User: Fold this.
Amino acid sequence: MSDVPRERYDVVVIGGGPAGATAGALLAEHGHSVAVFERSEFPRFHVGESLIPDTYWTLRRLGLIETLRRSAFPKKYSVQFVSESGRESRPFYFDEYRPHESAQTWQVWRDQFDTMLLNRARRLGAEVFQPAHVVDVLQDGERVCGVRVRFPRSEGNSRDVLASVVVDASGLAAFWASRRRLKVGDPRLHKAAVWTYFRGAHRDTGRDEGATIILQTPQKRSWFWYIPLPDDITSVGCTGDLRYLFHSGESTPEAIFQRELQRCPALQRRLQSAVRVRDYFTTRDFSYRSSQVAGEGWVLCGDAAGFIDPVYSSGVFLALKSGEMVADAIHEGLRRDDLSPQQLRTWYPTYRTGVENFRRLVYAFYTPGFSFGSFLREYPHCHNHIADILMGDVFKPELAELFEYMGEVLPPSDATVGESTR
Assistant:
């Protein structure tokens, strides 16, 4: 394959992360000409290491399940919760709700996992260019018709590349959505996170060894994720309200992490013999949605269309699923010669329903005084609904029943705030 892109493709994808790689792979598999422009050289570091079960279906369609089975990624059979009082729940085993091989998933190094996805896009026929920095979107009137790409290895030379459709899968950078000022913050989720990595942290035995653990601190001021990774490394991160975590302008990420660690005895025990092996990382105010997901010649995908919160590990799942759904909408549009905004967003109403189901469960997690344990003791038949969401089966209409029962303690969703049906 040439290091120089052609003048024109059916589809140009901005970003080679899980959403962009999936969209590019499936469109190329359909026989369409696809260029994926990724700003970074892979492998590259990325947080978000825990997969949920329903990633299985897109990964199977991509032909990657056997590759994952042969990998060294820890197998994830469950998630466990530690309440603000320190009470540890019984592990939530996915196969108790779904007796299928998809109930087991993986904890992944994102540099390796994302490279696996992008390489699959290449093998299926997408032309992948990296490092390739999209610096502008080309327009013919109101219609997007391509991108301008700068190639750092070519002394900064840029090239205009035309396309019938441009997919913005640029992640949290949200290249096109940011330029069009489509990003709308979530007023209930002004959160921040501080995280790092440890070697030698405690792991449970047997099939609990690879479990994700979610640990809350008193008064729900913050919570920690605990994700076992290969080579005895564990990803540990603290999330909380932005103003609370960073209430002192002089606080360093390490000071914030250690302050919250002292409020979480269950995590202290797990880290007692551990040694930190990487620096501290931070991210802030990451929850948002886009007021428009498609227009003349363009469509958003993955985190570029919105991000909720890390608590239920929905990010990679939604990236993969939106990449798949966007690819199918574009393929159908190319087949029928209909690339109208209406066609390019046919996937979105279904997808949005699933996103809002995740979002409402996130709201419940953060609601003061709300306890999932107490709720399920009162409404035991809702176990299956919560299981569906934790596993990623979020598109079924039956889930509306769950939030009807939660209505007395859970505020209504802000799904319509700042968001059109476009």
Notes: Residues 415-421 have pLDDT under 50 and may be disordered. DSSP finds 14 helices and 21 strands in the chain.
